[in-house]
Specification:
Elements lengths: L14 E7 L4 H12 L3 E6 L6 H13 L4 E5 L5 H15 L3 E8 L20 H24 L8 E6 L11 H23 L5 E7 L5 H4 L4 H11 L8 H11 L11 E4 L8
Parallel strand pairs: 1-2, 1-4, 2-3, 4-5, 5-6, 6-7
Helix pairs in contact: 1-2, 1-8, 3-4, 4-5
The structure holds nicotinamide-adenine-dinucleotide.
Nicotinamide-adenine-dinucleotide binds next to α1, β2, α4 and α6.
């Protein structure tokens, strides 16, 4: 069986690409730049207003400074037409000499409304809930389908999705995001199983990062409490950084990890186990 042979990536002449969903900030940005330094061409998808575009240009410049391609798209990653356009353009750019080695789902876009409020207007609505689940959990499935159907995955491809301790713990403002994280982990397990049964050589894992200072974290009303709590319990004595996670993703994407699939991989310096 082709898929169970040891990976020999370094001898693989094909150019590896990484498709990063959420490439303009936080974990997605750090992973895009770190993978470029490791030799990957990068396709980034992000959602930014005009004032954020100078920062995106800076990320592209860092990728290109490593001699790699930076193909970026600004738009809603949960939109079907946007996804079809990105996949078509990515397929043309990758060409016959490459493949998508890494796909990272790192989208932060959800409601922080509580479920129970006296008035209906300030509480979570069906629309809020469905949008959060669609972007933060279910879009992983549609991207995996589209990239696979386009023939862009190959033996050795890795899919990752960013999850958090919130998949199994409650935080007051995190109800819908917590639901999305549970669904995201479940979607990873299902995709891992289906890709394995296809003998595709594609593996799927969720990455559970520790509390990390990013724009998404700082939007939570409880951000400072979460940071203080994480600092108290993390046995490494500091918070996780986006670079800690990016470096782990590069390492997981190297040789010899073809049997690693269907997991939630903690990249948190031991934060969970001491909590
Ligand atoms: N920061 C933490 O402490 C932490 C811990 C564990 C897991 N996570 C998860 O990591 C992921 C990334 O979070 P982050 O902290 O790096 O956030 P971030 O705000 O720094 O980055 C989010 C990225 O997602 C993009 N984005 C958001 N909605 C989008 C959409 N609809 N379409 C296209 N792009 C969109 C943004 O443009 C940005 O590039 C999230 O799923 C988050 O829940 C965060």
């Amino acid at each position: 069986m082709i898929w169970s042979r040891p990976m020999t990536d370094r001898k693989d002449a094909r150019q590896p690409w990484a498709l990063i969903l959420g490439a303009s900030s936080g974990f997605g940005e750090a992973t895009a730049i770190t993978l470029a330094a490791a030799g990957y061409d990068i396709c980034g998808v992000h959602l930014d207003r005009r004032q954020g575009m100078a920062h995106v240009d800076g990320i592209k410049a860092q990728i290109e400074a490593h001699g790699r391609k930076a193909l970026f798209f600004n738009g809603n990653a949960a939109d079907d037409d946007n996804r079809a356009n990105v996949v078509a353009e990515l397929k043309a750019a990758v060409g016959a000499g490459g493949y998508v080695r890494v796909m990272l789902h790192s989208l932060a876009f959800g409601t922080l409304k509580p479920y129970l409020t006296p008035d209906a207007d300030s509480g979570i609505t069906r629309k809020n809930m469905e949008m959060t689940l669609d972007v933060m959990a279910n879009s992983l499935v549609y991207w995996a389908q589209a990239v696979w159907r386009a023939g862009l995955f190959s033996d050795g491809s890795k899919i990752y999705a960013m999850t958090s301790e919130g998949s199994s713990r409650v935080i007051p403002s995190y109800g819908a995001v917590s639901a999305a994280k549970s669904a995201l982990e479940s979607n990873c397990r299902q995709l891992a199983m289906e890709f394995a049964k296809l003998r595709s050589g594609v593996t799927v894992n969720a990455i559970r990062a520790g509390v990390t200072k990013t724009p998404a974290l700082m939007q939570l009303p409880e951000a400072q409490d979460l940071i203080d709590h994480a600092l108290r319990r993390n046995p490494m004595g500091r918070l996780a950084s986006v670079d800690d996670v990016a470096q782990a993703i590069v390492a997981f994407s190297g040789e010899g990890t073809h049997w690693l699939t269907g997991n939630v991989l903690g990249v948190d310096g031991g934060e969970l186990v001491t909590g």
